Each structure stands twice: as C-alpha cells, then as structure tokens.
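Customer escalation, tier 2.

The customer says the design service returned an amino acid string that "doesn't look like it belongs to this structure." They asked us to rerun it and document both sides in this ticket. The original structure tokens are below, unchanged.
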C-alpha cells in the first residue's frame, strides 16, 4: 500500500465556467481508510476519477507513495477502482473477470494469476462461483466479485465510487461490514466515496466533507460530528439534521444572552461556550443544536424556550418531536426541513398542540457566524469569529 496526496487539485469544465473541484489539499496515510461525502454535484466522483487517471486535473498534483502520477496514464497507475454498477464483463466467467486486471497490469504467469484469483475468491466467499457468469449472480455476489477483482491486483490505492448504492439496506450493511473487515486485514489505503452518511461515519478512519467542489472539513468522524467547522458541516452531517436558530447575542455579567427573532425567546449561555466568544459578544449568530441534545418538559426551567408540538414520531428506541419555535428557525442550503426536532426518550409523549419548554445541553451548543457560516463555538479549541 502507499500514501496518497492531493495538492491544489482543481477540475474545471466548459472553459472554466464550471468548477467541479476547487483547489483541494488532502493527505492520506499509508493504510488509511478515508470516506468522502457530500451532496450531489459536490465533486466527490470527479475527485476520484482524477486520482484514478480517468479525468485530467486542470491544475494541481497527485502523488501516490510520494511519486507524482498526475501525468501518468490510468493503466500505469497502481490503483484499483470499484464502481457502483460492478463493471463486470457479462460474457466472461467470474474467474476471467477477476483475472482480467492481472493479465493487463502484471507479468504473472497464467498459473500464478489463477492461483491468486482462487485465493482471493475464497477470501471473498465466492470460490464456488468462479465458473459462473455475472448474470447468474445476485447483486451482493456481483459486488463481491468487483471487490475481489480489485483486491487480487494488490494495488497501492483502492478507490470506491458508491459501490453499495445499488444494494438493498440489509445487504448494504453486510457488505459494509465485509469491506471494513477486509480493510483491517489487508491494511489497504482506500478512498471511499458515498452519499450515505452512515457509511461515511462508520467506515472511515477519517471523513472528508465536500460542498460545491470545496473541502469543508476533514477529520475523525466523532470530531467532525461534535465539532463542525461551519454551519454547512453541522447541518449536513447527522440525521436528523442539526437544528438552527437565528439569534442575537448580548453580553451579560456572567455570560451571553441569545435572543430569538422577533424576541420570541431568550436563552442564556454561561461557562465555556460563552467564553468562546472572546471580547466581541454582541451581534447576530446562528445557534446550532443537535436533536439528541434537546430536552423537552412541561415547564419549570427558567432558561428554556417555549415551543408548540407539531408532530410526535415514534421510532422505537426514541421519539422525534417536531416543534414550532416561532420565527427563529432557520436552515442551510439543502436542509429541506423547516422543523425544529428533539430526539427524546419514549416516555416523553406530549400531545399535538401542547405548549412545552425546550432546553439545550449547553456543552453541545454551537454558534455560527451569520455572514460566513464559520463556527464560533465548535468546541473547546474552536476558532473565535466576530460577526460582520
């Protein structure tokens, strides 16, 4: 395996009028599994195709194992790619499909190629399918063949382009676990593109979030979830999405008072989150809070936000409460959900139309700059922003 480095990677189309990938810098260690996630059209697959040599960058460099491969033909790059649609040759046997890449990219003898194919097929649990053709296989079996065809080559870098999106939910979970097992056993260096947040969060050593061709944040999944660097990441990562409220901040002697739009509520921050403002506390911000960090009661908390229950949605282990907090609810581009959501225990069951009190776990409150979207209080070491 080998390290992978993207240095100022950029891809333009239509003479520069469309920027699909905008100057991405990313270093991936030898043996690291990195997932890439973002909305449709954010540049995920284009980035992968450039790494594979299927698209030529407009500018920037690609290095594999320290070697600059930007101008190296795809066939001569030691990478293997697994596609969404399997990309199997329909009239070749599974054995022939798996051996094809070996024949094209190695000097192994026929006997050596067949031995390696057999060993890999057994490892993938498809040893008894080698003489079948793809039309005789299920979707899960086809994906195992596609994975085996990549593994058998023993490349420096594995590239996965939404490989599980054609499978049903149960099979996706099974294959996700299988890929994780293989990655741990083989120590492969991998870039895994997906639109599925659960895949991205559970599979990768690190997760990379893209939007509009730009790298928004890269880090450990837990770090990205708990400390988003901007409002887009906060709203994109997590399901249900992070709740957002427009607020105005006023300094207090012992903290900061946040007031909602049209003065429909006030909420006092104290302690670490308030101190993250630095010296400039006054101004407009967006408050972010995840549904699991919202508490709902019928009263008693003076530092709480009044709300009306619109919908109660049982999900088995918890209840989702969709709440109306007045005019302060905001969102981010692509949010699509105007409701404020609380994830509460099953014993919290207010009636539709009930007035309730909403409070937040202050240690989990995020504040974002209204103009830039950058985090003001993303964590203990969060950068401090001053609203414009």
């Amino acid at each position: 395996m080998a390290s992978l480095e993207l240095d100022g990677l950029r891809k333009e189309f239509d003479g520069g009028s469309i920027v699909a990938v905008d100057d991405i810098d990313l270093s991936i260690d030898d043996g690291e599994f990195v997932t890439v996630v973002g909305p449709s059209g954010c540049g995920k697959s284009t980035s992968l195709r450039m790494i594979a040599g299927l698209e030529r960058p407009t500018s920037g460099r690609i290095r594999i194992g320290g070697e600059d491969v930007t101008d190296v033909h795809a066939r001569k790059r030691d990478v293997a790619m697994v596609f969404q649609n399997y990309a199997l040759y329909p009239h070749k046997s599974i054995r022939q499909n798996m051996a094809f890449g070996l024949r094209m990219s190695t000097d192994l003898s026929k006997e050596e190629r067949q031995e390696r194919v057999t060993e890999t097929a057994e490892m993938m649990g498809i040893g008894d399918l080698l003489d079948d053709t793809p039309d005789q296989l299920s979707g899960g079996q086809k994906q195992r063949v596609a994975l085996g065809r990549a593994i058998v080559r023993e490349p420096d870098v594995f590239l996965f382009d939404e490989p599980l999106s054609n499978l049903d939910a149960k099979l996706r979970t099974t294959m996700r676990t299988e890929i994780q097992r293989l990655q741990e056993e083989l120590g492969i260096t991998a870039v895994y593109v997906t639109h599925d947040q659960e895949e991205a969060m559970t599979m990768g050593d690190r997760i990379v979030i893209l939007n509009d061709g730009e790298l928004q944040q890269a880090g450990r999944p837990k770090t990205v979830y708990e400390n988003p660097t901007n409002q887009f990441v906060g709203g994109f990562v997590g399901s249900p999405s992070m709740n957002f409220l427009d607020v105005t901040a006023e300094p207090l002697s012992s903290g900061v008072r946040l007031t909602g739009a049209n003065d429909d509520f006030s909420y006092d921050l104290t302690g670490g989150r308030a101190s993250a403002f630095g010296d400039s506390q006054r101004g407009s911000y967006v408050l972010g809070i995840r549904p699991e960090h919202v508490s709902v009661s019928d009263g008693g908390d003076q530092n709480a936000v009044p709300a009306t229950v619109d919908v109660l949605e049982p999900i088995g282990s918890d209840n989702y409460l969709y709440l109306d907090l007045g005019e302060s609810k905001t969102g981010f581009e692509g949010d699509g959900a105007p409701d404020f959501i609380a994830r509460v225990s099953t014993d919290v069951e207010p009636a539709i139309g009930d007035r309730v009190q909403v409070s937040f776990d202050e240690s989990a409150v995020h504040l974002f700059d209204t103009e830039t979207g950058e985090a003001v209080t993303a964590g203990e070491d969060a950068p401090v922003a001053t609203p414009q």
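Tier 2 assessment: The sequence is consistent with the input. Residues 235-369 form a domain with the OB fold (Dihydrolipoamide Acetyltransferase, E2P) fold (CATH 2.40.50.140). The first strand starts at residue 4 and ends at 13. Sent an explanation to the customer and offered a walkthrough call.
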